[in-house]
Amino acid sequence: MSASVQPPVAHAVDVVASEGEARHLAGELVARLAVSPDVRGMQWDEGAASWLCTLAAGGRGRITLAAPADPASAAQHTHRLVAVLEQGTPAEAEAFFRAVRHLPFTATEIAAAVAELPLTSRLAERWPHKPLAPVGVLLTIHHMRDFLVLVDSLIALGVDPAHMTVIDKEYPYAHTHRVDAHLVYRRGIAVWRYRDLLEGIEDHIGRVAAAGKRSVIMDDGGYVLPAVLRDLPAHAGHFTGLVEQTTSGIRKVDGLELPVPLFSVAESDMKAMIESYGIADAAVRNTLRLLPEEKFEGQPALVLGFGRIGREVARVLAGRRMRVAVFDTDITRLVAAHEEGFLTGRPLTDLVSAHRPRLVIGCAGSRSFGVEQSRLLPSNAFLVSTTSRNFEFALEELRQGSTAVTDRGVLGTSYRLAGGPEVLVLGHGMPINFHYAESLPNRYVDLVLAALAAGAVALSGGDERLRPGHNVAATNAILAESGIVDDYYRLYGPAGGGGRG
Questions:
Q1: For each of the chain's 501 residues, which pLDDT tens digit applies?
Q2: Which of 259, 344, 427, 490 could form a disulfide with 435 if both were Cys (CB 3.0 to 4.6 A apart)?
Q3: pTM of this prediction?
Q4: Are residues 88 and 117 in the same domain?
Q5: Which Gene3D superfamilies match (predicted)?
């Protein structure tokens, strides 16, 4: 007989909504639970002003729509949907809370995001002839509120939601479940998990090809096209091109013979000049949020990689009065770091041994930091990644070299190294700027999202400047011609008002 969950466990979701919106959202959740195979029945409990959920295996849950006890501590118009599993097995708890987490955003919440993304939300005014109607779109973009505004703009630009597919990268974003729910329940878009990537790609191709269309890939990390070329090469001809947002994605396609044009927002002048500082600042801010009791001023830090993000991370850490060292395998970047006043050295083990950083922030994505280097760290040191997935540190090597490995929950994983210190890998080695966070403010990321859409429009229209392979110069030219950078300057430049109004 399976053990029951003891004591009762709860999950709460705060939503910003009118009274009517909040009640409608709760009613939709109750209706979905009522038809779930994991639920035997739903009953309104008048005395407790809540819905009683009888689970199929005999457990019991309860759904309550409440208000914050201290309204001043929450955003205006906040409603709190509270789910409690009063009795049941761990399996029942998992199924019950999985349903509860999948709440679409309210119209009030979406309207706020739209107001924060004036460039992205108004793309259909720039291209009113629906230039994306001839294509399907396969997206692997971070699951945040801003992504939903981009999706709505792509639909307004002509993409049929039935011909869209979203790959959920399964990062622990602040609102990942709500984003998935909004895509499915509000927009009717197919969402596949990263672990089922190939199946999701094949499903997408089948649906879109049946409508006589080809597809544009919009990627953030080089997930789709390398998988197609490696595992589904016969389907490569289905795609008209790739829009890539990140440098890590560019590294994954480097060396591959690309049969389609690559619209490289990642390598564009626009992204280099505007976004890098924001990402670095978000990474450092989220690190400090997770470690509020730590004092880092005056402490040694090490930045791995002195590319666009690494350079800005080093500057942000120096601005927080840390003593910053930099390592890069590229000698030109190492020289640049030295001439900007950062401590540098070669090889990496010697630099770590001399500097003994308490904070190591990886921006290289190369697994260059493993047991050998970690054993040289002081006690209570932290490893932090800013790169895609968990590719920055040699985590399996750390695991094998440890006498104890402890899951620290939201903080990450600690490794007690044999013959060395205990180190904490924040966020389990996943990119820290997305770890239970929204990363960049919406107004900051607005330009990059608009640039992704501009790339999709150019690829859909068959812009003759876009040839198979990298197209950095053409990307820069098309983005300049689009006018989105001009609009960004008008919003946030010397005559702008911050995009409000």
A1: 456 777 789 999 999 999 999 999 999 999 999 999 999 999 999 999 999 999 988 899 999 999 998 988 888 999 999 999 999 998 889 889 998 999 999 999 999 999 999 999 999 999 999 999 999 999 998 888 899 999 999 999 999 999 999 999 888 777 889 999 999 999 999 999 999 999 999 999 999 999 999 999 999 989 999 999 999 999 999 999 999 998 888 888 988 999 999 999 999 988 877 777 888 888 999 899 899 899 999 999 999 999 888 999 999 999 999 999 999 999 999 999 999 999 999 999 999 999 999 999 999 877 779 999 999 999 999 999 988 767 789 899 999 999 999 999 989 999 999 988 999 999 998 888 776 666 666 677 899 999 999 999 999 999 999 999 999 999 999 999 999 999 999 998 887 665 554
A2: 427
A3: 0.84
A4: no
A5: Adenosylhomocysteinase-like (3.40.50.1480), NAD(P)-binding Rossmann-like Domain (3.40.50.720)
- Between CA 220 and CA 142 the distance in angstroms is 7
Torsion sign across C-alpha atoms 122, 123, 127, 130: negative
Q: Are residues 291 and 363 located together in one domain of the fold? A: yes
Choose the final residue of a domain: 79, 103, 127. 103
147 falls within a domain: yes
Residue 313 · residue 363 · CB < 8 Å: yes
Range of the domain at 142: 109-272+441-492
Q: Are residues 278 and 427 both part of a single domain? A: yes
User: How many beta carbons lie within 10 A of that of residue 295, not counting itself?
Assistant: 8
Residue with tokens 């260059």: 368
- Select from 403, 434, 465 the last residue of a domain: 434
> Do 63 and 83 contact (CB within 8 A), yes or no?
yes
Pairing of strands 190-193, 214-219: unpaired
Question: Residue 446 domain-assigned?
Answer: yes
Residue 188, Cβ neighbours under 10 Å: how many?
A: 11
Distance CA 94, CA 91 (A): 5
Residue 65 lies in a domain: yes
Q: Find how far residue 74's CA is from the centre of its chain.
A: 24
CA-derived radius of gyration, the chain: 24
